[in-house]
Design goal:
- There is one protein chain.
- This protein has 581 residues and is α/β, with parallel strands linked by helices.
- The protein is 64% helix and 10% strand.
- It has three domains: 3-316, Up-down Bundle (ABC transporter transmembrane region fold); 322-413 and 495-510 and 522-581, P-loop containing nucleotide triphosphate hydrolases (Rossmann fold); 419-492, Rossmann fold (3-Layer(aba) Sandwich), CATH 3.40.50.300.
- Strands 6-7-8-3-9-10 form a six-stranded mixed sheet.
- GO terms for molecular function: ABC-type oligopeptide transporter activity; ATP binding; ATP hydrolysis activity.
Length: 581
């Protein structure tokens, strides 16, 4: 049950001072709270005996009020310490979780749904933080505070009366063990269901245009209704166990009161304790009601926190498929890119996605990659990003295998524009500055002109300050591509990878962008995968892929002479252009 605290040992060691002060103050408050009932009991005994004076009565009242003031101040200190620690662990875990996601490779996100990761980053981390704050309070109150009150009841009042009053406690312990196991299992299932619901919401919101275009609103509502029903059922299963905690404890507390009052009156009648003792005892008995409840809360919180921490640790303990090797080699700049007999297969694939690729690209050259859909164009370009473990053969930069080059160093050379453009819910300026933080407006406009987006910029309501919406929803496909291109151009990377990044622009705009690339990227390496051959006619080297293998290679003119797939595709596209014109 307490494995969650053991697994969070790193945090408690880090915040040792905070928790030492907080727990000490919490225990001190528990001890001080024993004094007012004892003073009240003494005052009642003196009143019964008729020996109380007005001065003594004022002293009793002043003593109780003074103790309450001291307790108030100390309570503020321990609450600030414990619940401040709760907020702190939430911040640390969330930062650690997010930083860890930044290191993960695509295969991790293929295995884990976004909605489930969001659930772990929100609900689960929150459950752990509650365990660290309120959980520590219930731990102390259900153990130390409970023991101190019982000790006071036994020593200051009557050990026989105390023993009789705590007879129902074993019932609580037994019930908590049974309920705790059920809570852990059911809460894990409920959190998994919450992750499924998150994922469905993300898909529905992202695909709202498609849903409406195919008139599938009712079907999507039904699908979401089914998921929410599942979340409801699983949370209700947790609530049904939760509902047993309080009645069980109230029943046991009620038994304690009945035993305490009945046996206490018997002891008063036989002069073994005084009336004041019985009043004090009943006040002490009232004080252990919360610790009894705290036992139930403790079991509940520890099981929930443990289930949530297990889900968080499952992600944090997942290691990236690609990591920096211990024997890294520093490379100053990418002078050459070489594929030598490179064969690669995705982890989820049943066959090789690249087969025996051989090619060499020198600094300043442009490589064009073409082929049918699914032939491996994107896969070939992504090999330079080193997002997956390399297969057989060698992929080297400046003669050094990329699996020996530090990942940060490798990625610092590369500007990448994927097929599906990702824009952030920020302004056009901020999206472009992502490639070069703090870039001036003049530099931004130069990148925009290179991407042939300067004319479109004037049509936007607020120019560079226009919000593009989530994933660039307020922009057209061609505009999103050119903002993504601007982001890559402004970084001035040594290696620019364009993965079908001109598919949404017209032929005239494409020609302008290609001319700008040739002008501005002299002396730098560019790799372009495309379906439109006009985008790579200028390339120093063009390769044609089929089923992951190179079937043709050469310059544009050389490939036309080969009369193969490239020539056939070129003639077809030329005919289509003539018909469109």
């Amino acid at each position: 049950m307490f494995s969650v605290l053991r697994n969070l040992g790193w945090f408690f060691r880090r915040e040792k001072k905070r928790y030492t002060i907080g727990l000490f103050m919490l225990v001190l408050v528990g001890i001080l709270e024993l004094l007012p009932p004892r003073l009240l009991g003494n005052a009642i005994d003196r009143i019964v005996r008729g020996s109380i004076t007005s001065g003594a009565l004022i002293a009793y009242i002043a003593g109780i009020v003074g103790l309450l003031a001291v307790i108030y101040g100390i309570t503020y200190i321990w609450m600030h310490s414990l619940f401040g620690g709760s907020n702190l662990v939430e911040r640390l875990l969330r930062s650690r979780f997010m930083n860890h996601l930044m290191t993960m490779t695509p295969s991790f996100f293929e295995r884990n749904r976004t909605g489930d990761l969001m659930a772990r980053a929100t609900n689960d981390i929150r459950a752990v933080s509650v365990t660290v704050g309120f959980g520590m309070l219930t731990l102390v109150d259900s153990t130390i505070y409970f023991s101190v009150v019982l000790l006071a009841m036994g020593v200051l009042i009557s050990w026989k009366l105390t023993l009789a009053a705590v007879l129902p406690l074993p019932l609580i312990a037994l019930a908590m063990v049974v309920y705790g196991k059920a809570i852990h299992k059911r809460y894990t299932l409920a959190q998994d269901a919450f992750g499924d619901m998150n994922d469905q919401v993300l898909e529905s919101v992202s695909g709202i245009r498609v849903i409406r275009a195919y008139v599938q609103e009712r079907l999507d509502e039904k699908r979401f209704g089914d998921i929410t029903d599942d979340v409801y059922r699983k949370n209700m299963a947790v609530a049904r166990i939760d509902a047993f905690f309080e009645p069980t404890i109230r029943f046991c507390v009620g038994l304690s009161y009945i035993i305490g009052l009945t046996y206490g009156m018997y002891l008063v009648f036989h002069s073994e304790i005084t009336l004041g003792d019985l009043v004090s005892f009943n006040m002490y008995l009232g004080m252990i009601v919360w610790p009894m409840f705290a036992i139930g809360e403790l079991i509940n919180l520890m099981q929930r926190g443990g289930a949530s921490l297990d889900r968080i640790d499952e992600v944090l303990h997942t290691r990236p498929d690609v990591q920096d090797p211990e024997d890294t080699v520093e490379v100053s700049s990418p002078e050459t890119i070489e594929f030598k007999d490179a064969t690669f297969r995705y982890p989820t694939s049943a066959q090789d996605n690249l087969r025996e690729i051989d090619l060499t690209l020198r600094r300043g050259e442009t490589l064009g990659v073409v082929g049918r859909t699914g032939s491996g164009k994107s896969t070939l370009l992504k090999q330079l990003l080193h997002e997956y473990p390399t297969g057989s053969g060698t992929i080297a930069v400046s003669g050094v295998p990329i699996n020996r080059i530090p990942l940060d160093r490798l990625h610092s050379w590369i500007g990448y524009v994927p097929q599906e453009q990702i824009l952030f819910s920020k302004t056009v300026r901020e999206n472009i500055q992502f490639g070069k933080p703090g870039a001036s407006d003049d530099t931004i406009m130069e990148a925009i002109a290179t991407a042939a987006f300067d004319q479109d910029l004037g049509t936007l309501e607020r120019g560079l300050d226009t919000l593009v919406g989530e994933r660039g929803v307020s922009l057209s496909g061609g505009q999103k591509q050119r903002v993504s291109l601007s982001r890559a151009f402004i970084a001035e990377p040594d290696i620019l990878i364009l993965d079908d990044a001109l598919s949404a622009v017209d032929a005239r705009t494409e020609a302008r962008i290609v001319d700008n690339i040739r002008e501005h990227r002299q002396g730098k390496t560019t790799l372009i995968a495309t379906h439109r051959l006009s985008a790579i006619e200028h390339a120093d080297q063009i390769v044609v892929l089929e089923d992951g293998a190179i079937i043709e290679r050469g310059t544009h003119e050389e490939l036309l002479k080969q009369n193969g797939w490239y020539r056939e595709q070129y003639d077809r596209q030329q005919l289509e252009n003539n018909l469109n014109n």
